[in-house]
Specification:
single chain; mainly alpha
Length: 163
């Protein structure tokens, strides 16, 4: 076991506390108002600092160290945590999370998603699915290609008009 706690940022500590309570990265991201990627990055950094292979092991070491040597500034939030936080399996209602998409909203058709101009509006950062991210990258590449070809044609036309 780790004798001394590695130097962890406050964000890493928050993530490990919630991992120890059994929350997924997505649930932790919602509670801390950060992206799921940020949560995963904080947990990975904690894994390296503790030198353990799993997030559960890092969380277990962190919590056991906190119980052995409680620090007033980090121990108090655990005492005063509300019960629904640990036992509430459902996400908060959409009125509490204005950036979360409603479950009832209709997903746009594939052709409409392909020809949509620009990134999706509204919502939080990193809420696109894998296919949505790939589609956004392809769309950006195609629009860039069309822009470059158009610019080259305009330049060629200008040279022909002058020459």
């Amino acid at each position: 076991m780790v004798d001394t706690l590695p130097a962890l940022s406050e964000g890493e500590k928050q993530c490990l506390r919630l991992v120890a309570q059994g929350f997924s990265s997505k649930e932790i991201a919602r509670q801390l108002h950060v992206s799921e990627h940020t949560v995963d990055q904080r947990v990975r950094t904690s894994l390296r600092k503790f030198g353990v292979p799993s997030r559960k092991e890092a969380a277990r070491l962190f919590v056991s160290h906190q119980q052995l040597a409680p620090h007033p500034e980090t121990y108090q939030p655990l005492i005063h945590q509300s019960e629904p936080l640990a036992s509430d399996a459902e996400p908060a209602p959409s009125t509490d999370q204005p950036d979360s998409p409603d479950a009832e909203t209709e997903r746009p058709s594939f052709p409409r998603r392909i020809f949509a101009f620009g990134p999706p509006l509204g919502g939080s950062i990193n809420e696109l699915s894998i296919d949505g991210r790939i589609l956004a990258m392809v769309r950006a590449a195609v629009l860039t290609g069309v822009g470059v070809v158009t610019l080259l044609l305009l330049i060629a036309g200008a040279f022909r008009a002058l020459g």
